[in-house]
Structure formats: structure tokens, C-alpha cells
Amino acid sequence: MTDFLWADPEPERGYDVVVIGAGGHGLATAYYLARNHGITNVAVLERGWLAGGNMARNTTIIRSNYLWDASAAIYEHSLKLWEGLSDELDYDILFSQRGVLNLAHSLPDVREGIRRVNANRLNGVDAEWLTPAEVKKLVPIINTSQELRYPVMGATFQPRAGIAKHDYVAWAYARAAHRLGVHLIQNCEVTGFLRDGDRVRGVVTSRGTIEADRVALCAAGHTSVLASELGFRLPLASHPLQALVSELLEQVLDTVVMSNAIHVYVSQAHKGELVMGAGVDAYNGYGQRGSFHVIESQMAAAVELFPIFARAHVLRTWAGIVDVSPDASPVLGLTPVENVFVNCGWGTGGFKATPGAGWVYADTIAHGRPHPLAAPFALDRFTTGALVDEHGAAAVAH
Question: Membrane-spanning residues where (predicted)?
Fold first, then answer.
């Protein structure tokens, strides 16, 4: 179906840069290497099909209202890129800035929400605090009764946040990278690395050996497996993260609504289906399916907030694999192995970071030093103690 968008070449003997992982971040990295830095002798290797991992399994939410300065900076950079991405890539990615609500259900929620709004404003991120009446006006179908188990006591609101069509984002980056000379090689699993002392000089794949001057790891939860092959450890825990969609419905929800207390977030896609998610499964694993109790809980939570949803039918469910670091922030930059770079640990925030992560990762690879926006997310922060603690920023898991 996508042959007209990009070619499917045989691997060449060697490349200037090999990117492992053809998800959103890998494709964006390759595009910005070519576009921003003139490095076009690049191969993106994917063990399955292009964008068949988390890029195809997320709930497409985009926002930048993170608490800490470092997080707000990189996600806001990403959001600004999202705002011009359709024009940049000459492909309509259906980016819809419909706003994101994070509901507060207790006095601590209210205090934390107001704190986050103030922090966002200090960092130049658009943020508002809404009263229950203002929430009801924005989302008429929400239940704001004070008799609820967790009544709505207010919400943070980022008007510029929204959603995009994940497949279109991947295809747009892939086509643009291909036009600049990047090779996108599918069904090519990396099984090992070529070493020359402390330096890596290539990769061993299911389709042969490929030499490389630089190797960029970009395989989400499986990045830790690749790192172990190289002799260093990444502090990642991989968990299944579930989502579900309903049948097609008339448009009833014009914004994205999230609730940490009752563990659900929901938006309505462009075609009309409701897209819902919840928290990660408690166990570690790489299975792309989740647990029924999580599905049941998130549906109950959705009906509690939106009684009208009780008449909707679930169409399908799925799970992706999220890679979570100890401080719930990404690992982005250099590694202990010369000429090997890493981009992982985004947890539930990977999709929204796609353009920004690709931009700063490409800059880091091109210059061999961290981009200023990536510097706070260096791997060595777990030994220095300079953590970027964003555990509260997930607001369920999205």
C-alpha cells in the first residue's frame, strides 16, 4: 500500500548513520539528520514493518504541560514543531488542537493543578485553570455532580494541545526522509554489533552485516536489550499499556479529557470512535496485549464521567510496550560506548515528543554532543542524582 511513498531497498554495505527502530522517533531522527544536517547516507532498520510498534499502538495525545523546566522545554519545542508539521512534510497529519483537560477530584489535585498551571506559564506554555462550571461549559456531556465518588473540582487546560493521526505522522516522516535519500529497511532485525575495541563499527542483522560510523538506538522498550548486547545497562522497566476504541459515533466530545483519580483518559478520533486509555499494567513484559481487569476498570471510569458512553460498544483493544525510567523522563544522548547514541525511556510520552525528540536526537548524533534540550536527560543523571522527576506528569498514562 505504501510503495508509492517510499522505497524498500536492499541494505548497502555501510552507512554514515544507522538508526535502529523505524517508529516515529527513528523516522523523525533520520529526516532531521538529512534535512537539518545534510547527513543523507542514513539507514533506518526495522525488525518488522515500518511504524508497527508503539507508533501504531498509542492514543495520539499531544501536549507540553509538563512540570519541570527541562521537560516543558523539550515538549514545548515538540509542540511548536507539531503546529507546522503538515506544511513542513507536505502531508496532512490531521493535527487537531482541541485542547487537553486534566481533571482534579480532590483538594490536593486542585493545589497540584494550580501549581502546574503557574509553572507552565513561567515556562511560556499555555495553561489555564478551569472551575467545575467552566469544565461543564467546555464539555457538556461530562458529569460534574458533587454526588460522584470523585467529583470534578476543577481542571487544568492546555488549549494548544490535541491529537494527530499516528499512521499519517509515520508515513509523512518516512516519505520525507526517503525523498532526501534515507534508506528505510524493513524486516531487518539487529542481532549483534561489530566491535573494534571500545568502538562500534557496524551492526549484524538478519539481512547481513552493515557497517556504520555512528549507531543510534531508538527501539523503545527493546533498547535495553540492545544496550545489554553492547555491555551497558539502561535503567528501564517495560510494561504493557492498553487502549481501546469504540464503534463509530456522532461527534460528542470536542476535547481530550483525562482523570488520574479514576484512571481513564478519552478523546474522540476524527472518524468518530472514542479512544480510551488507562494506566500501565503492573507487570513487566513485552507482550502486546493487556489484562481484562484494566479494560473493565477504564470502561467503568469512563461511564462514571460520561454516562452517555454506557450505550457505546467496544470495537477492539490493544497494548503497546512503554519503557519507563526511574524518574519517568527520557534517556537521550551519549552512551558509554563511543559512537553509539540512545533515545529511550519516554514511557507514555513518546508520541507527543516525536518531532522534538527527532530534532534534538539528530543534532546530538550529528555533532557528537548533547543538544541543549537533551542535556538534562543524559544517562549519567542516574549516577549524579540530577533526576527530572515527572512521575506526576503522566496523569494516568498518555
Answer: none
